[in-house]
């Protein structure tokens, strides 16, 4: 046995392990004795051994050819490795969903808080500045902004008053502007610096987007071509000004189809957005329970998430379906029976494909998720401020 072990360069236990069995020991009971060993673990003489001892013969390594047991062991190891890889993939899928929700929620909530702070500061500045503009005591809020009556229907003195408001406080015509005529940064910044205070406060919420192939800087919402809205503060602009209206979803139908009301970006806090006489801006009493001579200003902002999808609401007790709100502008219905404003012109699509967070005729957006065209998650943020009018004309 000693001569055979030295010749092959391996111990009996090594050779036995290669053969797929372990030698039996009365003290430890390891298992079967390999067929190439005797009861003491010694290698039995064989033809291979004899051949190996002959001059010029190369040494033979026993057990070099895999046995059936070795193949099965390797197959079990391979299957175990595959199962471990599949388990890792499932764990990763579960973890990545949680991390995505955490990331998207943090990002969108941060945007929402940021937008709400800008709106509140803008509402305070706008109400304060409008309270200091000398206007006739009989003016309504809409007339001061040139909304109702329309700018083109006003007399020359009234147009001068409206131009003063648009130049010194707020200009609705600056909610969507063509910036293609400002090729360099210096002229662009000079243009922005000429805006009235309330428009400048809303500037961080505006988007850069192509409208009909023309680069525009616009406020989120629906683009409206208002032919009778009057020119902005810059008289060199065309009369068919693009303004922005905010669609407020009042309820939903089948598939999440929207029923909306139209609201101006800057409007008065009053009982009905369509009836200017119910507001407190004018000094002429209209309703006994309404205080007069107040600038009650509200700003609307359609917050829509770029990383989250809107899902249909369900009643208590209904089975959980998790149905997303489908993006279908043809299914949108304008609720004329509500307290919304009248659309002052025709809608203009921001892009030909209607894709994007604020895409489509109504500015409700379109995303691709779950193999469907869906609406982004949205909430209408509002901020308001009230100041008493101090200067009259």
Structure description:
The protein is α+β, with helices and mostly antiparallel strands and 393 residues long. The chain contains eight helices and 13 strands. The chain has helices spanning 2-8, 12-18, 47-53, 68-131, 141-145, 156-168, 185-193, 197-202, and strands at residues 176-178, 207-211, 214-218, 222-226, 241-252, 258-264, 266-268, 294-309, 333-334, 346-348, 367-369, 372-374, 376-388. A hairpin with a 2-residue loop joins strand 2 (207-211) and strand 3 (214-218). The longest helix is centred in the first third of the chain and has 64 residues, at 68-131.
Mean pLDDT: 79
Report how far apart the termini are.
123 Å
For the CA atoms, what is the radius of gyration?
39 Å
Describe the largest sheet.
5 strands, mixed
Low-confidence runs (pLDDT<50, min 5 residues)? 1-10, 12-31, 47-54, 233-239
Q: Which range does the strand content fall in?
A: 15-25%
Number of E strands: 13
Shape field: elongated
* Secondary structure: helix percent: 25-40%
| SSE sequence, one letter per element | HHHHHHEHHEEEEEEEEEEEE
Briefly characterize the structure.
Helix content is 30%, strand content 20%.
Provide tags for this entry.
393 residues; alpha+beta
């Amino acid at each position: 046995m000693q001569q055979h072990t030295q010749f092959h360069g391996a111990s009996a236990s090594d050779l036995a392990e290669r053969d797929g069995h372990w030698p039996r020991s009365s003290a430890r009971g390891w298992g079967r004795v390999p067929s190439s060993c005797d009861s003491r673990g010694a290698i039995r003489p064989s033809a291979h051994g004899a051949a190996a001892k002959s001059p010029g013969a190369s040494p033979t390594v026993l057990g070099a050819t895999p046995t059936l047991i070795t193949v099965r062991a390797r197959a079990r190891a391979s299957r175990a490795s595959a199962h471990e890889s599949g388990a890792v993939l499932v764990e990763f899928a579960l973890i990545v969903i949680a991390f995505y929700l955490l990331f998207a929620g943090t990002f969108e909530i941060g945007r929402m808080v940021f937008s709400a702070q800008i709106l509140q500061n803008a509402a305070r500045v706008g109400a304060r500045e409008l309270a200091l503009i000398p206007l006739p005591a009989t003016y309504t809020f809409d007339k001061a902004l040139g909304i109702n009556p329309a700018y083109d229907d006003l007399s020359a003195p009234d147009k001068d008053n409206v131009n003063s408001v648009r130049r010194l406080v707020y200009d609705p015509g600056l909610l969507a502007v063509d910036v293609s005529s400002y090729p360099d940064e210096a002229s662009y910044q000079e243009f922005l610096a000429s805006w009235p205070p309330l428009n400048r406060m809303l500037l961080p919420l505006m988007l850069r987007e192509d409208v009909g192939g023309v680069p525009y800087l616009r406020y989120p919402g629906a683009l409206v071509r208002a032919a009778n809205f009057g020119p902005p503060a810059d008289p060199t602009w065309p009369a068919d000004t693009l303004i922005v209206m905010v669609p407020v979803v009042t309820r939903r139908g089948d598939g999440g189809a929207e029923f909306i009301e139209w609201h101006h970006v800057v409007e008065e806090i009053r009982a009905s957005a369509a009836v200017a006489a119910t507001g407190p801006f004018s000094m002429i009493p209209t309703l006994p329970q309404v205080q007069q001579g107040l600038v009650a200003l509200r700003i609307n902002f359609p917050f829509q998430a770029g990383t989250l999808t809107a899902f249909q609401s369900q009643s208590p007790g209904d089975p959980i379906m998790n149905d997303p709100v489908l993006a279908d502008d043809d299914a949108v219905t304008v609720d004329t029976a509500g307290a919304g404003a009248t659309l002052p012109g025709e809608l203009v699509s921001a892009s030909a494909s209607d894709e994007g967070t604020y895409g489509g005729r109504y500015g409700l957006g379109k995303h691709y998720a779950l193999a469907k065209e869906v609406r982004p998650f949205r909430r209408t943020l509002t901020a308001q401020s009230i100041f008493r009018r101090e200067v009259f004309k």
